[in-house]
Amino acid sequence: MLLAAFVAFVHFLAFFVLTTTLVLQLGLLSESISVATARRILRADRVSGIAATLVLIFGFLRVYYFEKGADYYFDNTFFLIKLALFIAAALISIYPTLCYARWSPELKQEIAPGISAPKLLRIRKIIHYELIGILGILICASLMAKGFG
Question: How far apart are CA 114 and CA 60, in angstroms?
């Protein structure tokens, strides 16, 4: 029982960290980004990737070992929607990560990265879509908890 509670705690904590780092990135992204801000964005992106990985790992531990069992979850429509939303958010998050990774050579030389207005808008939209996906995941989780699906 205690192990199940710990696994659930880490799952939820990672989910909250993921959400927080996305909001942080959104707040830091602007037309002019300093070297220090760019480094914060890179760190937030790395932490969000780690958090998303932990959400997935501990979520599947819960599904297979600690909750109602894989058959229950994989037969639940809202669980499948949750999983699809998570996968969609993970896939669209690749674009901002690749954009941030391209800043590394400039940052090593202490040069602030330049970002075009269209690219900035695209990254901000993607982060908004990820956050909307998180809201969808929360709605599905609430419905599952009440026996729907």
Answer: 39
Helices (H), 68-116: 70-74, 77-92, 94-101, 104-108
Nearest alpha carbon to residue 22 among 58, 53, 52, 54 = 52
Per the listing, tokens 């300093």 go with 34
Question: What is the C-alpha to C-alpha distance for residues 95 and 119, in angstroms, rounded to an integer?
Answer: 10
pLDDT at 149: 82
Residue 93 near residue 130 (C-beta atoms within 8 A): yes
Euclidean distance between CA atoms 13 and 18, whole angstroms: 9
Phi, psi dihedrals of residue 29, rounded to the nearest 5°: -75, 125
The answer to pTM > 0.90 is yes
Cα distance between residue 43 and residue 38, in whole Å: 9
Angstrom distance (rounded) from CA 44 to CA 89: 16
User: Which tens digit of pLDDT belongs to each residue from 40-93?
Assistant: 999 999 999 999 999 999 999 999 999 899 999 999 999 999 999 999 999 999
Provide the domain count of the chain.
1
25 is in which domain, residue-wise?
A: 2-145
